[in-house]
Amino acid sequence: MLAKRIIPCLDVKEGRVVKGVNFVNLKDAGDPVENALVYDKEKADELVFLDITASHEKRRTMINIANRTGESVFMPFTVGGGIGAVEDIRDLLNAGCDKVSINTQAVKNPLLIKESADRFGSQCIVVAIDAKRRDGGWEVYTHGGRTPAGLDALEWAKEAESKGAGEILLTSMDRDGTKAGYDIELTRSISESVSIPVIASGGCGSLEHIYQVLTEGKADAALAASIFHYREISIKEVKEYLRNRGVPVRV
Amino acid sequence: MIAIIDYGMGNLRSVEKALEKLGADVEIVSDAERLNLSDKAVLPGVGAFKDTMRGIEERGLGKVIREYIDSGKPYLGICMGLQILFDESAEGGLNKGIGLFKGKVKRFKPCDRLKVPHMGWNQLKFQKSGSLCPLLKGIKDESYFYFVHSYYVAPADRGVIAGATNYGVEFTSMIWRENIYGVQFHPEKSQNVGLKMLKNFIDI
Asked: What gap in Å lies between CA A27 and CA A37, rounded to an integer?
């Protein structure tokens, strides 16, 4: 049976992990590869690196990280943040990452989804959607949640799928950083309107939240950052908890 | 030396890095001469069936791969490297494969409970011949491997099925016949259990 996936997210700034894992034994807590190795050992199902650097140097930095990560861990990982062109995607995939996540540029130019899916396969094209509640639904935001895009999240998810996206990484902006739980209604609505997998993100604060989003929320995977970074909950605890409640997980 | 066959499409680095990590002598090859110097070959692959076959045929590799396999040297096909061994695929119209195995490549049908692509960790259930397969030595039945695909192989001869996986339907996720091994999942992305399988291939 296909297992529900638990995915830690690592925020990377200028090549360094911010909010890095608080491990006593890490030689360098800001090193992306050291962080990846810890999560690999804990049997995280995938990793996401999100580049939050605002400089022009970011492309080279992320390619370097993808290269080094691929030499050290043998699990799937995704890179996202500021990817704007087919060449960026090609370079990252060649460096060894399995999927790339596109957000703002996909909204600006939906053909980027099609071109890259045609060229590299849908399986490596993740469309990230930042969604915020409004009357009667959710609106899509771009530029790291700063700019309303004037798009309905459900409609956009369907369009992304039709253009060739292989997966949706869905973040609730209302819940992000609150630890109040994922937006179950948003996640379920999107998951039921597309036939590609949906990764839920934003708001995770407890084991129960993860259980809820994977069952009621119908998400295929749950992503979290802070609770794993700060060791509030370990991947192992999450999986044991889910398994005891009947959710299929890889332990 | 283990040859990784480059047909101009897929990302070969993950497989290369994994084999190197395990201490193997690896070379990326795209012609008959280099391929024939190797002791074993791996054909990795993501991407579309049609493009893969085109990449193979443009380099004249179809015949070369068939002859290589006929010579008895171990061959491991991963994902697309498994699918192209069959007669034909329904992906992107009907396309001919190398045809070393009778059978077709079919698409999962999306439904309420079933997302396509089949993406994530799923279990490999050993079939009749599986327990004897050298690639599965030291690996527990029903271990989880990482999958990313929308199509699966349906061999006409069920005797070649070494492992199967359930995703709405039970599909063939591993085949084995003499020196030919094929897996639908990605051992190079399946953490320790995947590395164990690659080590078994190195040790054949």
From this structure: 12
* DSSP secondary structure letters along B72-130: T--EEEETHHHHTTEEEE-TTS-EE---SEEEEEEEPPPBTTB-SSEEEEEEEEE-TTG
Contact B190/A at CB under 8 A: yes
In the predicted model, what is the mean pLDDT of residues A223-237?
90
Answer yes or no: are the C-beta atoms of A173 and A129 closer than 8 Å: no
- Cβ neighbours for B109, distance < 8 A, ≥ 6 positions apart: B116, B168
- Does the pTM surpass 0.90? The reply is yes
Pick from B48, B65, B44, B68: nearest CA to B56: B65
Question: Among all residues of A, which ones are annotated catalytic?
Answer: 11, 130
Nearest-Cα distance to chain A for B100, in Å, is: 25
The 10s digit of each residue's pLDDT in B61-119 is: 889 999 999 999 999 999 999 999 999 888 777 788 889 999 999 999 877 578 989 99
Structural domains of chain B ordered from first start? 2-203 (3.40.50.880)
> What are A8's two structure tokens?
């830690």
